[in-house]
Specification:
Blueprint lengths: L3 E3 L18 H6 L14 E6 L5 E7 L9 E5 L9 H12 L4 E4 L20 H9 L3 H4 L3 E6 L1 H10 L7 E7 L5 H8 L5 H17 L7 H6 L3 H12 L5 H8 L12 E6 L8 H4 L9 E6 L16 H14 L3 H4 L2
Length: 335
């Protein structure tokens, strides 16, 4: 079935059809958790990115086998993820195959960043992204940057794009972003999503325990019974929010979409079991401007395993979008 497209990028995005046997939003979603053979990535270079408060984020840099003048693609993982998340590795392999250098960034407290940073990332911590990008070596910014965020990382990215990103950022894309964090919290806690909720909460609590934050005690973690509790009793107080509702309101990217001026693509699936499509359809979405919403009829949550191509549907659509942006004169593309 053909996707619906809203916004300025009128590109020939392909139709989406589920790859058998991953039929429906749930199977599309869970396929990423199954460890098939991982995408082959050449050995990466470790990159240390200092933040203003003295902490550091770690990233892995993969470059194509030949010299390229293409922009660097920066991949930003989602909740409980890191540089080795399957969807991040798969996206890295796809973009590398098209000749782009790729940075797989670990957010604060994630993966290799765990031992070099205090606290933990959250959906609104866009300042970390700004400081990490500023710290990139000049060689990785020489031809500009293209940013891609998945799930929670997508919301963080969209918030960042609304906050006057640096001029070397030429375009961005967000995949399955929870732009209304309250709506996402309510959705994941529905009875039909109890298995997702239990699995996600277990991972979130494990990450909190590993963070080393003295405010997050073992007793507190044991008392947490829901994602809402976690946001209310851990995320909010350790990051300066009054409570979970304050965190959701101040960190959701939805109300900020009109402020984005750099070409940006949002790819979402109508059957995403974690994030209701209305969260995007009803956002303060500009009919004109820089943001394009591609709503696929299927694909689940950061799944998009299509029948017609082994490369994920969202990666191919993002590739088309980036190619269109890069085909314009740079001065025009940055308007």
């Amino acid at each position: 079935m053909n996707p619906s497209v809203r916004g300025p990028a009128r590109l020939p995005f392909p139709p989406f059809r589920d790859r058998f046997p991953w039929i429906g939003g749930d199977l599309q979603t869970v396929r990423n958790t199954l460890r098939w053979s991982d995408p082959h990535l050449a050995p990466a270079t470790r990159l240390k990115l200092p933040l203003a408060d003295g902490d550091q984020l770690w990233a892995s840099v993969n470059v194509p086998g030949h010299m390229t003048a293409k922009p660097t693609i920066v991949l930003i993982h989602g909740l409980t993820g890191d540089e080795n998340s399957r969807n991040i590795q798969t996206s890295a392999a796809y973009h590398l195959g098209r000749g782009f250098p790729v940075i797989r960034m670990n957010l604060r407290g994630a993966g290799p960043s765990l031992g070099s940073s205090q606290g933990h990332y959250h959906a609104g911590r866009s300042r970390d992204l700004r400081e990490a990008l500023a710290a990139l070596p000049s060689a990785l910014k020489e031809h500009g940057a293209l940013l891609v965020g998945a799930s929670l990382g997508g919301n963080m990215l969209l918030k960042f794009m609304a906050e006057e990103p640096p001029p070397f950022v030429r375009a961005a894309a967000a995949v399955s972003p929870p732009v209304d964090l309250k709506a996402a919290q309510m959705c994941i806690m529905r009875p039909r999503n109890r298995i997702y909720h239990r699995h996600l909460l277990k991972q979130m609590k494990a990450d909190a325990a590993a963070s080393g934050d003295v405010r997050v005690t073992a007793d507190l973690i044991a008392e947490i019974q829901s994602v809402y509790d976690f946001d209310d009793r851990i995320v909010a107080p350790t990051n300066g929010f009054a409570n979970a509702e304050d965190y959701y309101a101040r960190s959701s990217a939805g109300p900020r979409l009109r402020q984005i001026e750099t070409p940006t693509l949002i790819v979402h699936a109508a059957d995403d079991p974690w994030i209701p499509p209305d969260a995007l359809s009803n956002a303060a979405f500009p009919n004109t401007g820089a943001v394009t919403l591609l709503m696929s009829p299927g694909g689940g949550h950061v799944g998009f395993h299509a029948a017609d191509n082994p490369a994920p549907y969202h990666d191919r659509c993002i590739g088309m979008f980036f190619d269109a942006v890069l085909s314009r004169p740079q001065a025009q593309a940055s308007q």
